[in-house]
Amino acid sequence: MYRLFYSPDACSLATHTVLNLLDQSPQLASVNALDCFAKINPAKQVPALQYGEEVMCEGAAILLYLLNKHENDLLPANGVQRQHAIENIMFANASMHPAYSRLFFINNLELDQETKLILFNAAREHINHLWQVVDQKLRGNAFLGGESVSAADILLAVYSRWGAYFPVDIPLSERIQAMLKNVFALDAFKLALKNEQADQKKHGY
After folding, report:
1. Sheet harboring 48-51: ordered strands across?
2. What stretches in the chain show pLDDT beneath 70?
3. Half-sphere exposure in the Cβ direction for 197 (13 Å, CA)
4. Domain spanning 79-184 has what CATH number?
5. DSSP tag of 164
6. Where are the strands (E) in the chain, listed by range?
7. Which pLDDT score is estimated for 145?
8. Domain 3-72+187-202 in CATH: superfamily?
9. How far is CA 39 from CA 4, 35, 47, 108, in A?
10. pLDDT tens for residues 17-46?
11. pTM for the full model?
12. So where are the chain's domains?
């Protein structure tokens, strides 16, 4: 069994969802309940995934490991479609994720509110541009990979929830909203949320 080190509503939620889709429901380990997470992942970032004695880190690398190991419809087996699917995972992980992370960074700065709003708006502009890229990728398709959900769609769906924490306006096109709605409706996504909430309650968080 896999052991998933997670934080609520973090990018580890995407890993959790993919594990559920692969029928690999993980044992959960909330980093909020650990005193020594740095020993598991020195970068102190989720997700981290343990299988036996091996601990894997970095969300995109973990997803590619899982999709290569387990039979699935989330990642094409070969050819150009596979390359595009990997590009979409990297776009989500290396472009959209850092763009949203800037909002958290700005929020923690000790600055006056007016200056923070200027920085928030600058970060918002970049995020909005990236969503426009996603909108173009979705033209004619329900999901980034076509008519079936991909790991990149799940990553983007998790990130999309983060904007609500900040005073920013991040408009999403009808195509994007439809894609996100379909991801949120996945039993695997709803189960991941339910299990993480139950685990947090068990630990008193």
Report:
1. 27-30, 3-6, 48-51, 54-57
2. none
3. 6
4. 1.20.1050.10
5. G
6. 3-6, 27-30, 48-51, 54-57
7. 86
8. Glutaredoxin (3.40.30.10)
9. 15, 9, 14, 25
10. 999 999 999 999 999 889 889 999 999 999
11. 0.96
12. 3-72+187-202, 79-184
